Amino acid sequence: xxxxxxxxxxxxxxxxxxxxxxxxxxxxxxxxxxxxxxxxxxxxxxxxxxxxxxxxxxxxxxxxxxxxxxxxxxxxxxxxxxxxxxxxxxxxxxxxxxxxxxxxxxxxxxxxxxxxxxxxxxxxxxxxxxxxxxxxxxxxxxxxxxxx
Length: 148
Ligand code: ROI
What we know:
Elements: E1 2-10, H1 15-28, E2 32-37, E3 41-43, E4 54-63, H2 67-80, E5 95-101, E6 106-107, E7 112-113, H3 122-131, E8 137-138, E9 142-143
Antiparallel strand pairs: 1-4, 1-5, 2-4, 3-4, 6-7, 8-9
The structure holds 7,8-dihydro-7,7-dimethyl-6-hydroxypterin.
């Protein structure tokens, strides 16, 4: 069993509903249990500003899946939410990213762990801090408190 952290984000089609539904869908997957969900944060868009504010959250999960099977499982949920992967940095109905997976570092074409943007993004760091603590170590980067 590994502990992993997932970020959830949405700025289209009732974002709060999208996030709560995604949370339930993740929890219903075989071989995954969600142990914590952060508060839902309303955040200004990073990237193009001519889009709605986002709702962001981070979930702590426990899973027996491999990282790539976890990615596929999350992508199936994104697809159910009609996520269109067309516009880079554009609005999205649901974005589910693997932030961290135990102490693993991985760099493949499809998946980089820790998530490469993690320490640059307040909309991820703040909810991640909420479900961990000031002494939490981000694999490869060091203490979370250095970045907040
Ligand atoms: N901005 C915020 N605030 N939250 C997000 O989840 C988010 N996701 C993205 C981009 C478009 C980079 N900006 C974001 O993919």
